[in-house]
Amino acid sequence: MCGIVGFVGADASNRSVQVALQGLGRLEYRGYDSAGVATIGSDGTIHVVKKAGRLTNVVDALAKHPLPESSLAIGHTRWATHGGPTDQNAHPHLSFDGRVALVHNGIIENADELASELADRGIALASETDTETAVHHLALELAKDDDLLAAMCRLARKLRGSFTLVAIDRDNPNHLVAARRNSPLVVGLGEGENYVGSDVSAFVDETRDALELEQDTAVDVYSDHVVIVDFDGNPTQGHPFTVDWSVDAAVKDGYSTFMEKEIREEPTAVLETLRGRLGTDGKLRLDSSSISEDVFRRIDKIIVVACGTAAYAGYVAKYAIEHWCRIPVEVELAHEFRYRDPVVNEKTLVVAISQSGETMDTIMAIRHAREQGSKVLAIVNTHGSSIAREADAVLYTHAGPEIAVASTKAFVAQIAACYLLGLYLAELRGNKYVDEVADYLDELNKMPERIQKVLEQEPRITALAEELKDKDGFLFLGRHVGYPVALEAALKCKEVSYVHAEGYAAGELKHGPIALIEEGLPVFFIVPTPRRPELHAKVLSNVQEVRARGAHVIVIAEEGDDSVEEFAHQVFRVPLSTPTLMMPLVTVAPLQLFALRLAQAKGLDVDKPRNLAKSVTVE
Fold first, then answer.
1. Using CA atoms, how far apart are residues 199 and 209, in angstroms rounded to an integer?
2. pLDDT computed for residue 341 by the predictor
3. Backbone angles phi, psi at 354, to 5 degrees
4. Per-10-residue mean pLDDT for the chain, 619 residues long?
């Protein structure tokens, strides 16, 4: 969740702090309760500036009292877990002797035990954080042999939980050391300078060359080289990769918020996810796979594991894959999966969906699945991420960086990737002929233009949000693939507008939720195409039921569907002839826009909603 950046250059200058601050600015979406930076001055002293609140508080403090020139710097944006968002709890933390400064992402589960050991030595804690126990123990380890890398490895072996740690030593001001376990860390390789970050956004405008680090490894970073070891001190290597997007993709590009920019990028996100999927033989292919075709053919069950928005993409996948492949598909919340003794075996394919590829609940779910003999296929947006590395096969969404905390373009890209997976399996298993798959791909390739057409209704959506901004409750209802869209729409309103919103399968209306209907309650319906008359008639009946009880009815319906006009206060249209299974790609866009505009009408910061972080890297 927290954002981490580190920089090591050849010479002392102001550049170290500038690089750290720029990196933190791009990582602030990962954590924005507090922030801080640390450097080592020519006087051999570690200098720390850290403040509660947004990164701008640190920038303002540095404008008044600049840090000394240095060849290195570390920085941090925090999402509070242990201890509230205060100056004292902000990172970096200094060791009791002032020799070491450290930043941390994750949770140290044995922090109380470590604190007790410190108390026995007469070392008191100045903060409420688990991180502070780590920095003091690192200083104690460093005192044994004056080797920061070896000390970090010994500390890592002591710690339980998930962590990324980055530390600097005042007595050795020409390098930094970092370590990771179950938490993201990448290394950036520059010319005469090197970097570390919790993701590549930390250094993407400095270099595109990066290294993935294996689980339970530490890295010693100098300006001209890096040394990687496992926690036992044995040399190992990282996996080089090239960042395939530029810093321009991580800026607002003229939009007032990242969330709006990313909604507007949905057509491109879907297009890029679909691009280049056919091999020279005309058949669909994955980005990478160590799963044999025979294994894919023997699969008799698929389990999708994901959290939040990604789980709703999984529900769409269930409808499509079961229809195309006739394989039963279950969708599991990743954080529940391994605790309920799931039935998985070598004939089960577990599909893990995650934008960041670092969602800790999902990582632990796929590890459990693999222990049971299951194969894992990952659908992720981030190259080099933990889930991508640990999976047996990968489909990348190619959506580009998503900075806003509330996921939008990643959702439609994940759905597009799920369609590709369904068609890949259907073709491989003989459920669909090659020409049938080609027809589906033709329809998918029309979707970016259709999404763009839906987004052109933005002025009316903005007007609706302004009209409803004082409402404190919303219902979203849909059937079939409209149901997960309803769930996603409700989540978006909760995330950025802080209103009570619920998504339901429309058929559940009479089984309880209809009791919530009162005069003026906004109720959104995702209406199926009239080309599915049974589904369409059922939802239209639900519309009439809530309208008769005084609800304010808003409908997402297909062009030419005049049957909804009589009962709806507002109607937003999606393009005619969109295949039923692909409807979520177009029906979700106006609802995401509504959540955005509703939050803005309330004067809220949609990019950094309260209490939320972009990547949930702790369980």
1. 13
2. 87
3. -160, 130
4. 91 95 84 90 95 94 95 93 90 97 94 96 95 97 97 97 95 96 92 94 91 93 97 93 70 86 96 90 89 96 97 98 97 93 95 93 95 96 86 93 92 98 96 94 96 96 97 96 98 97 94 93 96 94 94 96 93 94 97 98 93 70
Backbone angles phi, psi at 574, to 5 degrees: -115, 155
Tell me the one-letter amino acid at 217: T
Which residues lie closer than 8 Å to 60 by C-beta, 6 or more apart? none
- Counted residue by residue, the chain has a size of 619
pLDDT at 325: 97
Give, in order, the Cα–Cα distances in Å from 480 to each of 326, 485, 534, 564.
Answer: 17, 10, 11, 18
472 — alpha (psi -120 to 50), left (phi > 0) or beta? alpha
In degrees, to the nearest 5, what angle opens at C-alpha 95 toward C-alphas 92 and 100? 70
CA–CA separation, 127 and 91 (whole Å): 10
Burial class (CB in 10 A: 0-12, 13-18, 19+), 419: buried
Distance CA 85, CA 107 (A): 16
Six token digits for residue 554: 């808003």
Nearest CA among 594, 466, 599, 468 for reference residue 526:
594
Question: Residue 414 carries which side chain, given as an amino acid letter?
Answer: Q
Task: Give the torsion through C-alpha atoms of 398, 400, 403, 405, to 10 deg.
Answer: -20
Report CA 552 to chain centroid distance, whole Å. 34
**pLDDT value, residue 248:** 60
Decide: 392 and 377 in contact? Cβ < 8 Å.
Answer: yes
Q: Is 51 a catalytic residue?
A: no
Three-state SS for 243-302 is CCCCHHHHCCCCCCCHHHHHHHCHHHHHHHHHCCCECCCCCECCCEECCCHHHHHHCCEE
Rounded to the nearest 10 degrees, how much is the dihedral formed by the CA atoms of 519, 606, 447, 559? 20
Which of 524, 551, 525 shows the shortest CA–CA distance to 538?
525
Asked whether 135 and 205 are in contact (CB, 8 A), the reply is no
Q: What share of the chain is helix, strand, coil (3-state, %, to 5)?
A: 40, 25, 35
Q: Where would I find the H helices in 123-172? A: 131-145, 148-158
The residues with which 478 forms a beta bridge, in sequence order, are 505, 526
Q: Which of 215, 213, 226, 178 is nearest to 76 (CA)?
A: 178
For the question of residue 493 being annotated catalytic, the response is: no
Q: What is the pTM of this model?
A: 0.82
Q: What's the CA gap between 68 and 44, in Å, rounded?
A: 11
Task: Compute the distance between CA of residue 73 and CA of residue 67 in angstroms, rounded to an integer.
Answer: 10
List Cβ neighbours of 52 (8 Å cut-off, separation of 6 or more).
33, 34, 85, 86, 87, 89, 90
Residue 486 is given by DSSP the state: H
pLDDT at residue 206, as a whole number = 92
Q: Which of 51, 375, 492, 614 is catalytic?
A: 614
Burial class of 290 by CB neighbour count within 10 A (0 to 12, 13 to 18, 19+) = exposed
Q: Of 2, 153, 325, 493, which one is the catalytic site residue?
A: 2
Helix (H, G, I), strand (E, B) or coil at 504: strand
